[in-house]
Every structure is written in structure tokens, then in C-alpha cells.
Design a protein that fits this description.
By secondary structure, this protein is an alpha+beta fold. 15% of the residues lie in helices and 12% in strands. A hairpin with a 4-residue loop joins strand 1 and strand 2. The N and C termini lie far apart (45 Å).
Length: 197
């Protein structure tokens, strides 16, 4: 009996020692139609004619180009019951096409947020940084301009846009603000606004 218990404890210890992978961010590889992947328009829960979600309340309007963390790829249909199981905010409902190609952290088929987290917390995370441009996760953040042009008639110099930092909870429990991106880069980005899938 004790030998079986000892084996059980060893299995628990091994599971706890595994590093966290990108499934913690609900990363999904795309399926067809890829240009609409991860949008309400291709979600099983979407009622397109009513602009509602079967999981939200009857007064919660849902846009086809929006997304949330409860996305399930499937055929939308209007004959579903509206259940009021969760609010849009709780589901991470966000307006925007949340695919990697539209994310601030996406660069050359890599997720720079995953790269940054791996670098800063390598004892905890082992996130595959190679992502599909049409994939998605709940770390999505809309691309921001890094520069903006000054209107004609002014100095003609470009002003640098300084995007906000990302709050990362460290192993100590303390939240530190860091710019996401490659090591040594000037960073960019900001607090992700959920959503994602």
C-alpha cells in the first residue's frame, strides 16, 4: 500500500516540476476559414442573425468580428438558446481580429511576448515561440503605431510613440512592469486586453 502511495506522490511531484507551456495562454492553431479564425463569425456559440452569443445574456450584442476566450470553432446558427451563463467581460470579449498577424507581439512568425516570458521566467515557462500568423491566444494585443508622422508645416521630425509596459507576475508574487520584445530591444506593447480566442 505504501509503495503505491509513494508512486502517486512521485507522479504529482513530476507534474508540478513541468514547465508551463503556451496552452496556458489558450494558443490555438488556425482552421479554415483562416481569415475569420478566432472571430465570433466562425464560433459555434454565435447567433449571426440575432447578433448574440448563446453563452451571454439576451441584451448582450455580439459583433461578428469580435472574439472571446470561449471561442469554439464551429458553424454559427440562430436556433440556439441564449443561456446567460457568463458576461462578455468574464469571457474576455474583445472587439478586434485577434489572430497573431494582428497582434503587437507578433514578429517574423514568432511571439515576442512568449519569448520575453521565457527569457525572464525560464524556471517556470517553456513557451513555444513559433506561432502561425493566423493562430491566436489570449495574450493578444492590438498592434500600435511605433511612429507617427508630424503634419506638414511643422518641423517634419517624427515623434516616437511610447506604448505602455506589460505587468508580469514574478515567481516571488511581485508584479513588475517590463516592455515585451526581444532582449535588449526598446520593447513596446502593453497590458494585453484578454480575449483571444
Amino acid at each position: 500500500m505504501m509503495k503505491g502511495f509513494s508512486s502517486f506522490i512521485q507522479n504529482i511531484d513530476e507534474e508540478q516540476q513541468k514547465k508551463i507551456d503556451r496552452s496556458a495562454f489558450l494558443y490555438l492553431d488556425p482552421v479554415e476559414p483562416e481569415n475569420e479564425f478566432a472571430q465570433c463569425s466562425t464560433c459555434y456559440h454565435f447567433l449571426p442573425g440575432k447578433q448574440r452569443c448563446s453563452l451571454f445574456g439576451k441584451n448582450d450584442k455580439v459583433i461578428a468580428d469580435a472574439s472571446c476566450g470561449l471561442y469554439i470553432n464551429g458553424e454559427p446558427r440562430d436556433d440556439q438558446e441564449i443561456t446567460n451563463w457568463i458576461t462578455p467581460k468574464q469571457a474576455g470579449y474583445v472587439l478586434g481580429q485577434v489572430r497573431c498577424e494582428n497582434c503587437h507581439h507578433y514578429e517574423d512568425s514568432k511571439c515576442m511576448l512568449f519569448d520575453y516570458i521565457n527569457e525572464k521566467m525560464s524556471d517556470t515557462f517553456d513557451l513555444d515561440v513559433n506561432v502561425d500568423s493566423k493562430g491566436c491566444c489570449n495574450g493578444w494585443q492590438k498592434k500600435q503605431m511605433n511612429e507617427m508622422s508630424v503634419p506638414a508645416g511643422t518641423t517634419g521630425k517624427r515623434k516616437q510613440w511610447n506604448p505602455p509596459m506589460v505587468g508580469i507576475r514574478m515567481a516571488s508574487g511581485k508584479i513588475e512592469k517590463h516592455p515585451p520584445g526581444k532582449s535588449g530591444s526598446s520593447g513596446g506593447g502593453g497590458a494585453g486586453n484578454g480575449g483571444g480566442d
